[in-house]
C-alpha cells in the first residue's frame, strides 16, 4: 500500500509525539513529585494531557488524509506548533518557574484552536 506524503507526515509526527509524551509523562509522574510543588505538578500534567490530545489528533489527521484528497497542512503544523508552544512551555515553567514560559503557553492554545478550526472548515467545505 502506498501512503500519501501528507498522511505519512502526520502519522509520523503523531506517533513520534506520542512516544515523547509517554517519556515526558513518566518523568513527571516518577521524577518530579519530590522536586516541584503540587501546583507545578498540575501544570506539568496539563502539558502532558494536551500533548497527548494533539498527538492523537495528528494520528487521526493522518488517518483522515489516507482516505481523503484533503491536504491539511495548516492543521498539521498548528498541532505540532501547539504541542511545542503549549505543552513544552508548561513543562519548562513547572520545572523552572520562569514566567516567560507561562506567557508563551496561550500561543500554543491558539495553535490548537487554529488546527481544529481549519480541519472543521475543510470538512464543512467538502
Would you kindly provide a brief summary of this structure?
The chain is mainly α and 126 residues long. It has 4 helices and no strands. The protein has helices at 5-31, 38-66, 73-96, 99-125.
Can you characterise this structure?
It is built from 4 helices and no strands. By secondary structure, the protein is an all-alpha fold. It has one domain. It is elongated and about 50 Å long. The two termini are 25 Å apart.
Produce the secondary structure layout:
Blueprint lengths: L4 H27 L6 H29 L6 H24 L2 H27 L1
* Quaternary form: single chain
Question: Gyration radius, to the nearest Å?
Answer: 16 Å
Number of separate strands: 0
The shape is elongated
> Helix content range of the residues, please?
over 70%
Features:
126 residues, 0% strand
